[in-house]
Fold:
Amino acid sequence: MSTEEEIIAGCKKGKASFQEKLYALYSRRMMAVCLRYTGSRFEAEDIFHEAFVKVFKHIDTYNGGSFEGWVRRIFVNTAINHYHKNRRLLEQLDYSTVEETTPTDEDIISLISGQELMNIVNQLPEGYKLVFNLYVVEGYNHREIGEMLNIAEGTSKSQLAKAKNQLKKLLHNYSISENAD
Structure:
């Protein structure tokens, strides 16, 4: 079994066997990243393959620190670039009516699986889902999200607030339908 450092060194030399090991090591986690940013498995696979090509092409630029973080950043950036290329016109938002709210019914979240929660998040409109994932899952702040998506910081905050409100409604509806069974 090769160490991560050995795999990276082998990839920097262009050795296919080490590229396969790197792929095996990160493919599941990075596909999960891709699925969070897309509406379909087909789109996620496009991003996934494009991002892995970038990892192998630019592995010489990796110079220490968390390798998984470096790889994840390439995948997130590739997903964002994909979003920009395929972006539909986002609805105009009235920022003056936006309020930050958080779901209060934590019990619903504790009763559902991670996959069920991701299925609910995937029901969000594309812009809401993108900001939600970048802020909540990836940990970026609104300024960083604004820069990545070429939107105002206020738009990021608004999209997140609306995503949370919509998620609250979706979780409530999910709870009602689950209890009806």
Q: What stands out?
A: Confidence is low (pLDDT under 50) at residues 88-110.
